[in-house]
Design goal:
CATH architecture: Orthogonal Bundle
Order of helices and strands: HHHHHHHHHHHHH
Pfam family, one: BPD_transp_1
CATH superfamily: MetI-like
Strand content: under 5%
Family: Belongs to the binding-protein-dependent transport system permease family. CysTW subfamily.
Oligomer: single chain
Keywords: Cell membrane, Membrane, Transmembrane, Transmembrane helix, Transport
Number of strands: 0
Structural class: mainly alpha
Subcellular location: Cell membrane
Number of helices: 13
Number of domains: 1
Distance between the termini: 44 Å
Radius of gyration: 23 Å
Organism: Marinomonas spartinae
C-alpha cells in the first residue's frame, strides 16, 4: 500500500469509521437481543424462544409480504418515471434548469409532512372529493384514505423517491457521449434500440443503485405507513413498534423483527439488482 492510498484511507476514517462502528453496534445489539441477551424484562440467557414466537405469528407473514410489495413496486415505478425524465433533461434546453429543480423539490419536503398533505387532499371531505362532487363525477364523496392495498403509500413513495432516482440517472445518462448514440443512429438503430442496447447497459450501475436505495428505504419506512397506510395490515416497521409497546418481551421480539427486516432489505435489494442486470443483458442480446 503506497502513501497516497494510506492517506486516502486516513482521511476517510473519521467519517466512515464512525458509520461502520455505529452499524456494527446496532446490528450486534439487535442480534444479541433476538437470542435472549440484553433482556430488559427478565434474565439474559441464550434462547430461541423469541424467534419461535415471531415466526409462528401470522402477523409476521402478512407484514413481510406487504412490506416486500410496497418496496418492490415503489422502487420499480420510481425508476420507470425517472428514466424518461433523465433522457429528456439530457440535452440542455431553455428552462431545463427550472424543470430539473421543480422535479427535485420533493426532496426538500419531509416525508411526514407529505403524508399528512396527501391524506388531507384525498380525505372523505378533502379537496379531491369536493372536486369530484362539484363536477358531478360522483354523487357523494368516496373513501380513498388508508386503502387496503397500500396504493396511497406507493404514490407517496414514488413522489418522494423519484427525484432521488432522477439525480442518479441524470448524471449517468449525461455521461454518455453523443458520439456513441449518433454512431448507432447512423448505423440504423432506432430510438428504442439505442435505449435498450446502449443507454441501459451504460447506466446499469446507477439504475441498480437507485433500485437498491429506494427498495431499502421503502421496506423500512414508517411515516408513510402510519399516516396513509392500510389499517388492516401492518408493515414490518409498524409491527416492530406494536410488539415493543404491547409485549412483555417487546424489546427482544422487536429486535427479531428488525433482523428480519434487515435481511429482507439486503436479500430483496440484491435480488432486484441481479434480476435487473439479467433483464438488461437479455434485452441487449435480442
Amino acid at each position: 500500500m503506497n502513501k497516497q492510498t494510506l492517506l486516502a484511507y486516513c482521511l476517510l476514517l473519521p467519517g466512515l469509521g464512525l458509520i461502520i462502528v455505529f452499524i456494527f453496534v446496532i446490528i450486534s445489539m439487535a442480534l444479541a437481543q433476538s437470542v435472549g441477551y440484553f433482556n430488559f424484562s427478565g434474565s439474559s440467557k441464550f434462547t430461541w424462544q423469541f424467534w419461535q414466537q415471531i415466526l409462528a405469528d401470522n402477523q409476521l407473514s402478512r407484514a413481510f409480504f406487504y412490506s416486500l410489495k410496497i418496496a418492490t413496486i415503489s422502487a420499480i415505478l420510481s425508476v420507470s418515471f425517472a428514466y424518461p425524465l433523465a433522457l429528456w433533461l439530457r440535452d440542455p434546453f431553455r428552462g431545463a434548469q427550472f424543470v430539473s429543480s421543480l422535479l427535485k423539490a420533493p426532496l426538500l419536503v419531509h416525508g411526514l409532512v407529505a403524508a399528512f398533505l396527501y391524506v388531507n387532499f384525498i380525505s372523505f371531505n378533502g379537496f379531491l372529493n369536493q372536486i369530484f362532487v362539484h363536477l358531478g363525477l360522483v354523487s357523494r364523496p368516496i373513501r380513498m384514505q388508508n386503502d387496503s392495498y397500500g396504493i396511497g403509500v406507493i404514490i407517496l413513495q414514488v413522489w418522494k423517491q423519484m427525484p432521488f432516482a432522477l439525480l442518479l440517472l441524470t448524471g449517468a445518462v449525461q455521461s454518455i457521449g453523443h458520439d456513441i448514440t449518433d454512431a448507432a443512429k447512423d448505423l440504423g438503430a432506432g430510438a428504442w434500440t439505442r435505449f435498450v442496447k446502449i443507454i441501459l447497459p451504460l447506466t446499469l450501475k446507477a439504475l441498480q443503485a437507485a433500485l437498491i436505495i429506494i427498495f431499502i428505504g421503502a421496506a423500512g419506512d414508517y411515516s408513510f405507513q402510519v399516516v396513509a397506510g392500510p389499517i388492516s395490515v401492518s408493515s414490518l416497521s409498524q409491527l416492530m413498534l406494536r410488539i415493543q409497546a404491547n409485549d412483555a418481551n417487546g424489546w427482544n421480539l422487536s429486535a427479531t423483527v428488525a433482523i428480519l427486516l434487515m435481511l429482507t432489505a439486503l436479500i430483496g435489494s440484491a435480488l432486484l439488482a441481479l434480476i435487473t442486470q439479467q433483464v438488461i443483458k437479455w434485452g441487449a442480446k435480442r
